[in-house]
Fold this sequence. Notes:
The structure holds 3 protein chains of 3 kinds. In chain A, the strands form 2 sheets. A 5-stranded mixed β-sheet of chain A has the order 2-1-3-4-8. Chain A has a 3-stranded antiparallel β-sheet with strand order 5-6-7, with no helix packed on it. Chain A contains 10 helices and 8 strands. By secondary structure, chain A is of the alpha/beta class. Chain A folds into 2 domains: 3-104 and 148-304, no CATH class; 105-147. Chain C is of the alpha+beta class. Chain C is 29% helix and 23% strand. In chain C, a hairpin with a 2-residue loop joins β4 and β5. Chain C is flat and about 75 Å long. At the A-C interface, β2, α7 and α9 of A face α9 and β11 of C.
Amino acid sequence: MSVDKLKDAVKQILNEVDIVIGYTEGFDKVHATPLFINTQDKVDQLIWDQRCVHNLASYLPSLKRKKVGVIVKGCDSRTIVQYIQEGLINRENVKIIGLPCSGVISLKKLLKAVDFANIDDITFEDNGNVNVKTEKETKTLSLMDIAPDKCKTCQYPTPLIYDILIGDPIKSDKPKESVYEDIIEFDKKSLEEKLAYWQKVFDRCIRCYACRNACPMCVCQDSCIAESREPHWISQRATLTEKFMFHLIHTVHLAGRCVECGECERACPMGIPVNTLKRKINLEMKELFDYVPGVNPDDKPPMYTFNVDELKIKEHKIG
Amino acid sequence: MSGLENKEMKIVGFLCNWCSYGGADTAGVSRFKQPTDLRIIRVPCSGRVNPLFVVKALLNGADGVLVSGCHPRDCHYSDGNFYARRRLEMLKRLLPFLGIDHRRFHYTWVSASEGARWQQVVKDFTEVIHKLGPLNLTREA
Amino acid sequence: MTELGFLKKENLVEFLKELATKSVVYVPVADDDVVAFKLFQENSTICLDRPANIPPKTVIFPQYETLLTFTFSKKEEQPDKIDVKIQEKMDFKDTVIFAARPCDAKGFTVYDRVYKDSDIPDPYYVGRREKTVIIGFSCPNVSPGCFCTAVGSTPSDKEGSDILMTEVSGGFVLEPVTEKGKAVIQSKFIEDGSKYLEEAQKKQEDVKNKVKNPFKKAGKPQISQEKFNDDSFWELALSKCLSCGACTFLCPTCYCFNITDENKIWEAERLRSWDACMFPHFTLEASGHNPRPTKFHRFKNRVGHKFLYYPEKYNGVLACCGCGRCIRYCPVSVDISKVVDELSDTNSENKTLTSNGGEA
């Protein structure tokens, strides 16, 4: 897909909306950054490639009163579907430009692959090869080796909802069963191992709330209970107890709502796998209620509803 | 009685005002003997029980948490416990993933007339928690 | 001071072990690819080849500290009366920060002006600061987003360090900067390092030349008051900001804090913890009014504090040492250097405008 088609589409819808959200070059060769286009002359700054990692749909609830155009990948489109399910946006105020996507890069994995060297240049080939030039070497990597985990099992490469689709739809070639393989694998560990793992990773948390603020479904924003003094859910102590509690607040509030865009762990400056707990709940939601978040706009999130007779929930015995 | 010979454990119980709290009262009035490890917190409905109450209790020193409400279809507010059932089931399935034994958390339904059933629930749950021993999730004193 | 020392690479752990017998030693440790300053242990995976994700400010200005504790008590004979015992917590240990990057070390000098060398010094900060020796580590390479040379520093800046360490073939050259630093290298593991001086200097110069300058205009950035006060600029430039605290919490020069009382039933603590101007609660008033209602107001303050208000108060010194963390770790790549560059006054060559709008 040439970026020119995208630019043409943006130019066109800019006549109907106040702002279009897309991607542009970031501070170096490997970073893209969100671009807010309010005038035609900014359209030429648009880029589209494997560096476009951000979930731009996240900005929609805060721009609810404006008419907004937004560029979404397949995974990002699930956010919009979930917003519609929860009544968080006015669909008629949003123009969705869909872009089929066959994977993006994970900055964390890319940096690791080049031993944290400064990257001078990066190019992407159609066959999935990524050429990286650092001070020391020029390396060819496979995109799937440096893609975020969500891309490796992506079921929705083509946006599920859009007004304009640019480029040909892509069908997923990843088996459905692979999506939660890592979760099932992790769950096989002993309780002690699992607890030790979470203690280790949550201990790193600095409570900067980047995960929460980057999360498209964390719509409480300025009123988050993690920061409220009344009720006083967590204190200002930066202890493991408080960090653990914060992450569980995030997890439980996303139960059956997480669209698995992975923005939380992408945003984390301390490399905490923040998305894992939410995906565990999603796996259970699928099993219990056959529900997958962000797929069908007419669905109802499972925690917002009930059945008088729950088919899959059996009464538990003590012990 | 089991659970009483050893050191007392910390068990937090969230009980709905209309059924389980009444059930506990019935058990008391009927002089049904129960272990004393359970600390009861009365809530208006099991639907008021935020799964995070359970998490907060476990993280801050509770060794076990029990939630009890009206039987399904018997909710004083008609559907509070239906929501509770989904939320608490979600939590029950999440805990082992975090490394917390799922047996430390139990949710059940006890009506105001079921004093004997309440006694049994408390006895059984206390016994299980005593078997599991103290919980220290965050390596803090 | 010219008494250069040299530490062989193979003696590094032994040297740290020796230090650890006398002081609490913090070293940059890599864990799951995340580098942070942690207590030195013999099996620590010390990481020197890239800057830590989070600067060692945590050692002297911890994320939270107990300023004092309260204990309440009641006597049986007087149940209506509650006694309160208040106890200060001021127990500071001799500490060494090993391999702080020069930008991280320099960050402490930004704190010093506020917490140490001011009319009302902060006893908690001063207590830790004076007991801490900082071993700076001249950067062996540059990282994405670094711009120290553009804000009046270099990757081998000695300011803030007690010793500056430079990696050369086979080991490290240690150059004492202060008396405190001199004392630390009185060790059997430190040899004479004068013959490595040239190599160290060359290395420092090489790295310095690699640091990018993001500013169009030469010299330290000077912000135009007119552009700074134009809210429409901020609104558009910061549309993408998420208003999280990653930039401030990872910043070696951000020093804002909050004080809260954290109560239990019979005891309580008065805590000081990091706060961030990027959070809405930072300026939220009891009435419910927030003078910085949106994320762009908040970011404007962050830039203003670092590049306008602080320099105005402290003889033009910027409260930014160019470590680049806020750029590198920003989830949406907000680039403070770009914002400052766009705000820079390109018309006036020599005029400096103060935040009051007057000429300095």
